[in-house]
Amino acid sequence: MGRYIIRRLLWVILLLFVVSAVTFVIFYALPSADPAALRAGKSPSPALIAQIRHTLGLDKPIYVQYYRYMKGIILHFDFGYSFQDSQAVRHEIFDRLPATISLTFGAVVVWLLVGLPVGIISAIRRRSLADRVSMGGALLAISAPVYWLGLVASLTSDPGRWFGSLILPWCVLAASFAAFYARLLRANLIDVMGEDYIRTARAKGLPERRVIGRHAMRSAITPIVTVLGLDIGILLGGAILTETVFNIPGIGRLAYEGIINADLPVIQGTVLFGALFIVVANFIVDIAYAFLDPRVRYS
Fold it and tell me: Which of 20, 190, 230, 266 is deepest in the core (most CB within 10 A)?
């Protein structure tokens, strides 16, 4: 296990380097706009644009800019300064991280409380009216775009406080996830219920609730853990659509503003944070597998 953890940590470092390099190359190969021109305002003179480019360091070769950027991250955990307002990107990310965390974990609680029970009931009562209604609703929730649900929900209420302002975003963000988890758990549980050890547990006279909760669910829930870990990592990296629709000042909204303004330090910082959340979540999932499934061993 120790060697496995060291290998995974080295892989995380390599992956973050690759992500940062790819982001830099994409920014320069397919630029959406000139950051210096955007910052200079309307009808700027060429001299002003050249001065801003020099101030921002955009007149340096790309490898010099990338070296300075990575040096700041490695030595000082410094993501540089925004091209638009000269604010430290690290501080902007940390300032917006609580909003993203509140949105993510609130949505996770909602979709687990809805999706898992629906999946269990549908698996136990296959082809019943409850199964058909729940799976039909799940298909509708998966098909509905997040931005459309957000716009519809925002027209139905106007919450003013912190908790109230997050109820609608939680429900909108959780809708498609809850539907997907319900369908995934239903399919896994149906497969597991046909295994020999489930028939053996029933033959021993164990109550059906214990057969499902202790034996069947332990095997059926393993793929759910994998998907859950990755989903949490992705959402912590920024739920751009939901945060934009509801005007939530989170990391996703910050990434959107960085893309619109061609703000490379902001884009790079949010992308690296998102990649970090995803690889850490994937790492935790791999470790959790060893506890959920005794057949999993690491060498």
Answer: 266
Task: Give the separation between CA 10 and CA 67, rounded to whole angstroms.
Answer: 20
Do 177 and 214 form a contact (C-beta atoms < 8 A)? no
Chain segment 259-299, per-residue pLDDT in tens: 887 777 888 888 888 888 888 887 777 777 766 665 555 55
**Cα–Cα distance between 224 and 207 in angstroms, integer?**
25
| Model confidence at 245: pLDDT above 60 | yes
User: Which amino acid would we find at residue 59?
Assistant: D
Assessment of whether the complete model's pTM goes beyond 0.85: no
177 neighbors 115 (Cβ within 8 angstroms): yes
The one-character DSSP state at 216 is I
- Cα–Cα distance, 89 to 100 (Å, whole number): 16
Whole-angstrom distance, CA of residue 144 vs CA of residue 151: 12
Using the CB atoms, write b or e for 194-229: b if 16+ within 10 Å: eeeebeebeeeeeeeeebbeebbbebbbbebbbebb
Burial class (CB in 10 A: 0-12, 13-18, 19+), 141: buried
Tell me the CA end-to-end span of the chain in Å, nearest whole number: 6
For residue range 141-193, list pLDDT tens digits in order: 665 555 555 655 555 554 455 556 667 777 777 777 887 888 888 888 888 88
Q: Long-range pairs for 237-240 at CB < 8 Å and ≥24 separation?
A: 237/270, 237/273, 237/274, 237/275, 237/277, 237/278, 238/100, 238/270, 238/274, 239/100, 239/103, 239/104, 239/173
Greatest alpha-carbon pair distance for the chain in Å reads 85
